[in-house]
Write a structure and sequence with these properties.
The protein is of the alpha/beta class. It has 5 helices and 10 strands, in the order H-E-H-H-E-E-E-E-E-H-E-H-E-E-E. The termini are far apart.
Length: 250
């Protein structure tokens, strides 16, 4: 059976109603069993919330990545509580990575008081459903900062995609996401620039190839929002990882 984001959301409305009934009846709700493709709906939910977050008149002005992500985390938690079929989710910041415990993930989506099964794997409130890195474009200036940090850093392991490729982040997951806060220029400009960086990295004898290129899937010019995707081979004997990229002009 093929699941589209729309059909998954409709199915989820039914599951949400059943879970709500279970709570009213005074017992714990049943586990939720979701298809693998459900994560596409989760990414779409996050993407659709970003313009509302950016344009919220109550949101204090900010440019720093940590502050922006904290604000976004707050908005996503509020949106999930008020959105039918998404109130079984919570969002958290600086979550310890499940495999590399000394590392922290910028933002994660996790169950809220619910057991969720996807493709035979059980997730509780202690196990993230989706790890998300958050990056500013352009990269802030600094002595040990690399302008290509969205992808890779020559000064260490700050690179957004690089962390997933090496298994430093998200080693327990086959899917992950990166949110980019575009603070200058537009989406087509950054898409071309990052594409050229990947070409350059692939010629520098690193572990990058043309197969790491990012594909632009949708671009909403009016809302300053884009969804992109990429697939990457990973180090440490890990299977490949698929990354959803969500870009928002702020």
């Amino acid at each position: 059976m093929t699941f589209s984001p729309t059909s998954v959301l409709k199915a989820f409305d039914v599951l949400a109603d059943e879970a709500a009934f279970s709570k009213v009846a005074g017992r714990l709700s049943d586990d939720l069993h979701l298809p693998t493709e459900w994560r596409a709906s989760l990414v779409a939910f996050i993407a659709n919330a970003l313009p509302s977050w950016r344009d919220d008149p109550l949101r204090p002005a900010a440019t720093a990545e940590t502050i922006l992500t904290a604000q976004l985390c707050a908005l996503l938690n509020s949106a999930s509580r008020k959105s039918r079929g998404w109130d079984y989710l919570q969002f958290r910041m600086e979550e310890p990575d499940e495999v590399v415990r000394g590392r922290a993930i910028d933002l994660v989506a996790a169950p809220l008081g619910q057991l969720i099964w996807i493709d035979g794997r059980r997730y509780s409130q202690y196990e993230p459903l989706l790890p998300l890195e958050c990056k500013r474009l352009p990269t802030p200036a600094g002595r040990e900062r690399d302008e290509r940090e969205y992808l890779h850093s020559r000064h260490g392991s700050r690179g957004g995609v690089q962390r997933y490729k090496t298994g430093d982040h998200g080693a327990a997951h086959a899917q992950a996401a990166i949110i980019a806060y575009l603070q200058t220029d537009d989406i087509p400009t950054w898409y071309g620039r990052i594409g050229q960086w990947i070409v350059d990295l692939s010629s520098e004898n690193t572990n990058w190839t043309d197969d790491d290129q990012i594909t632009l899937n949708s671009h909403d010019v009016e809302r300053g929002l884009a969804q992109l995707s990429s697939n990457h081979v990973r180090d440490r004997g890990l299977s490949g990882i698929a990354i959803d990229h969500i870009w928002i002009c702020i």
